[in-house]
Amino acid sequence: MSAKKITALATTVLASGALLSACVTNTEPALPDGWEEITPERVDEIAALVDDADGVLTAGTNPPFAPFELKSDSGQIVGVEMDLARAMASVMGLKFRPVEQDFAMILPSIQGGQLDIGVSGFTDTEERRENFDFVNYLYAGIQWAQPTSTSEQVDPANPCGLTVAVQRTTVSETDDVRPKSQACVDNGEEEIEILSYDTSDNAAIAALTGRADAFSADSPVTAYAVNRSDDKLELIGDMFEAAPYGMAVNKDSDYGPAMAAALQHLIETGDYARILAQWGIEDGLIDVAMINERPQF
Description:
Blueprint: H1 17-25, H2 44-47, E1 56-61, E2 70-71, E3 77-78, H3 80-91, E4 95-100, H4 103-111, E5 117-118, H5 126-129, E6 132-147, E7 163-167, H6 171-186, E8 193-197, H7 200-208, E9 214-218, H8 219-227, E10 233-250, H9 255-269, H10 271-278, E11 290-291, E12 294-295
Parallel strand pairs: 1-4, 1-5, 7-8, 7-9
Antiparallel strand pairs: 2-3, 6-9, 6-10, 6-11, 11-12
């Protein structure tokens, strides 16, 4: 599962002008209401775990993929992963610098030494673990949403005959909606009409405007779209196929244990939960920092 992208929604039926601006410009005009930067103090014993020559934790990322990473109207890369990684860097005594890069180039750039870490909605998979370690910070799965104006409740487990919007090549398309559509055909039922878009924001727009009966995406992405929809979208069904998200580092790099220790510190102080809550993420949180799903404390 390789999660990629959302930035916002737009349509004339929306009351939110910010949402409209976000859609047409592919940028997010404002941070969430009540947002504040959480910058914890350096913890010397954690800072001693890694030797960073320039004192800057350089992170490759590929916006837009709200709420994980997206651009503000001024071009700044913001998002929950940016906030979390910045806080972890602060605990490690480092400055944080996100670097926008093609998603496919982030992991090779870590291997090549151009980047320290990758922070871009990475799902921690066995295949990726062959060459990288992942500091896990969240479990996320697939979540559906539908327009609140719909008279009948959509059932994600029985979607035959529906029109469903997805982002192209994401797990929602390849592992969720297309296999379900094929199962419908195999059972003699009407196939799902699949509307595939380059970004999840456009998929969400399709559901919001009624072009699609439902929208399938990674659970935090769907929740973010619902939260920004001015009550025009609602979550349906439960999250399923949960998997860990993680920040990527080179295999056996000192960054892994240091970042896990910094994350554990944030968990224990409550800053971890506060950072995620500011972006509407309250499900899938972890109790202990992990590397490749192995608890470190």
